[in-house]
Amino acid sequence: xxxxxxxxxxxxxxxxxxxxxxxxxxxxxxxxxxxxxxxxxxxxxxxxxxxxxxxxxxxxxxxxxxxxxxxxxxxxxxxxxxxxxxxxxxxxxxxxxxxxxxxxxxxxxxxxxxxxxxxxxxxxxxxxxxxxxxxxxxxxxxxxxxxxxxxxxxxxxxxxxxxxxxxxxxxxxxxxxxxxxxxxxxxxxxxxxxxxxxxxxxxxxxxxxxxxxxxxxxxxxxxxxxxxxxxxxxxxxxxxxxxxxxxxxxxxxxxxxxxxxxxxxxxxxxxxxxxxxxxxxxxxxxxxxxxxxxxxxxxxxxxxxxxxxxxxxxxxxxxxxxxxxxxxxxxxxxxxxxxxxxxxxxxxxxxxxxxxxxxxxxxxxxxxxxxxxxxxxxxxxxxxxxxxxxxxxxxxxx
Length: 398
Hints:
Radius of gyration: 21 Å
Number of strands: 0
Helix content: over 70%
Structural class: mainly alpha
Order of helices and strands: HHHHHHHHHHHHHHH
């Protein structure tokens, strides 16, 4: 590992961030056309909407196997294999003639993302000095947002030339390119000391040894992920509730996304210089209050302001979940711990829209949005209480 005085994020930009930004460019090109592809293959509207969740389901189910693959083959080869698997999955999606052929391809794409994300997180945790850790992981979160933001525009261009399946072919080419970038990158030397490396513990041992962190800080992380995923649903739904047309709704969503993209690096720098809670608590408080305020907006401009505040809260917290996971991850046992950590986050990603849907069905959309906001405030409270205690236990154990 390089010492802080010798380190620059630019020195690892291509190997650390190149495969990730390419992966998310490819995924971003594909995600907007998944439901349309399912409809073309004969799915009902409800089933087509469900197919969009298959990528997230694949990621959720594969977090723990991803930790094993990363440990077994190393970060570089795990990423190469994951990107190639994702490229093959997109080729199969492009060639699908029946819905049952599309479904497994989307699940495999999610699995590919799970391996890529975990391997990148582990790589940066070990390769970057702790004084730069939050900036590195926030940048990793930022480049994923950039890929998801730009990808749909590239996919739209591909559709213009080659039809709906062109987005899948573009995604396959981009992911294949990402595997080449990962294949030729040089591993960074990690300082393991002069003694022999301790044997890797089993997953169950890591879970048992770190159950307090996983059930306290991990609960806060689950809430964070739930609020973040709900945010992506809330803006278009409330725009529709206000009677705004699709173009205006997309504009608001894009502006909020732009606020998100502008703030990922300042948020990471603040975490490095002033501590994790200096970003985690304001981020979730701002998101929570923005969601609670949104049902009170009845016209375009207040709605836009609430959406921008929501984007700002999400932006400053970019990389927050990965940074906390890196901070509490043990060595040996880091890959196993990060697999469990990402499982908690993905569980929240799945649970957030479910909570929104359940409360909306029972009490109306305004109550559902406000409930998501309450979850954001709960996330801030849990992290403010749990993180200092977990840090003190970790310091005492060290």
